[in-house]
């Protein structure tokens, strides 16, 4: 059982890393393997809507995103962690997630998702909602905790003093481990849910074209 963790912070030892380390320690005690990809200072451009991924099954820009896609495909769960910038996720992380979810075509159904947000003070809920949208468009159940998954701190190291935030991380890792293990059992017993072919409508009436 393995969880891939994408850390969107450019600060290697910042507060997002502190939140992620608390998750990793708890996953370990639950017997769940983790791999952390810290992408905040990588050169990851945004999606250019070229549509090439529909032919290739991967992004036309062969960078970190395609490497992460292979790791995501092999994982049972995905945690996306971000510092809050102007009440939103870090822009590099959003560029990465747009391209990762749009260009990869493997089935993500029942891989468990969770997002973690880290801020000095405000914008946590908006960022949390923003990140959870990637999971809820592709059949990924979202793991939750004892509070919305946020940790507070401004300068690196300050997150260590947010006792409730770190407890929220531990509870999240425990709940996510339980969910992944339960889904593995459910898959064995019942298989994945039936999937209908996509029926896109785009809200456009053909008779008005
Ligand atoms: C460009 C920028 C924008 C920020 N915007 C916010 C914000 O909207 N709300 C907030 O509480 N903190 C904001 N912060 C502070 C960071 O969220 C905070 O320092 C956080 O601990 C950074 O995480 P890190 O140490 O993992 O990089 C901002 C920081 C930067 C660099």
What attributes characterize this protein structure?
alpha/beta; 209 residues; Rossmann fold; globular; 6 helices; binds flavin mononucleotide; six-stranded mixed β-sheet
Task: Characterise the protein shown here.
It is a single chain. The protein has 209 residues and is α/β, with parallel strands linked by helices. It has six helices and six strands, in the order βαβααββαβαβα. It has helices spanning 15-29, 53-56, 64-74, 91-103, 124-136, 163-190, and strands at 2-7, 33-38, 77-85, 88-89, 112-119, 150-152. The mean pLDDT is 97. Helix 3 packs across helix 4. The longest helix is centred in the C-terminal third of the chain and has 28 residues, at 163-190. It has a single domain (2-208), classed as Flavodoxin domain (Rossmann fold). Bound molecules: flavin mononucleotide. Residues 9, 11, 14-16, 83-87, 118-123, 153-154, 156 line the site of flavin mononucleotide (FMN).
């Amino acid at each position: 059982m393995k969880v891939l963790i994408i850390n969107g912070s450019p600060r290697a030892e910042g507060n997002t890393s502190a939140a992620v380390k608390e998750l990793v320690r708890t996953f370990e005690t639950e017997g769940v393997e983790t791999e952390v990809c810290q992408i905040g200072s990588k050169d990851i451009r945004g999606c250019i809507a070229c549509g090439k991924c529909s032919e290739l099954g991967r992004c036309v820009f062969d960078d970190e995103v395609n490497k992460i896609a292979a790791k995501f495909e092999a994982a049972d769960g995905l945690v996306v962690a971000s510092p809050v910038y102007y009440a939103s996720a870090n822009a590099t992380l959003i560029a990465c997630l747009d391209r990762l979810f749009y260009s990869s075509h493997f089935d993500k159904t029942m891989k468990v998702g969770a997002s973690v947000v880290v801020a000095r003070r405000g914008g946590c809920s908006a960022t949390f909602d923003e990140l959870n949208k990637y999971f809820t468009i592709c059949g990924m159940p979202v793991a939750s905790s004892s509070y919305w998954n946020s940790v507070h701190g401004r300068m690196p190291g300050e997150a260590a003093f947010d006792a409730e935030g770190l407890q929220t991380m531990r509870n999240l890792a425990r709940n996510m481990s339980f969910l992944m293990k339960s889904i593995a059992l459910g898959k064995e017993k019942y298989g994945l849910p039936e999937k209908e072919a996509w029926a896109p409508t785009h809200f456009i009436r053909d008779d008005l074209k």
